[in-house]
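Dear Dr. H.,

I hope your travels went smoothly. While you were away I took the liberty of generating a structure for the chain from your last submission, since the lab meeting agenda had it listed for discussion. I wanted you to have the full record in hand beforehand rather than looking at slides cold. The sequence, exactly as received, is reproduced here:
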Amino acid sequence: MIESLDALVRLSRWNHSESKPEPLVIAVAKLQDRLGAAERLAGSNFNGSSTEAAKVTAMCVALKRLSASYLQYCKQIASPLNVDDAANSLESEISATSATSDQWG
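The corresponding predicted structure, in token form, is as follows:
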């Protein structure tokens, strides 16, 4: 999901006169499937050791943060004037969430 969101941010800033790199386009195309998988995971119950349960809980928190940030991004880009701000906000959340990967990685 992080890969797809990062690709989305990068493409939102892409110069329209240049062709978009295929790996970024592919990653963005997978975003909806990845969001759906994240929602299913975050909404499920995990049974396992306390160590593994803590990792899954931290992962679910990260997924929810990213999903909420993506929804905010979608609302903000409704106005062309907000595209840069929306991309900056989403990029900041991606970075902040990635920084917690030691809790769920």
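Two observations you may find useful: The mean pLDDT is 92. The chain is about 75% helix and 0% strand.

With kind regards,
E. W.
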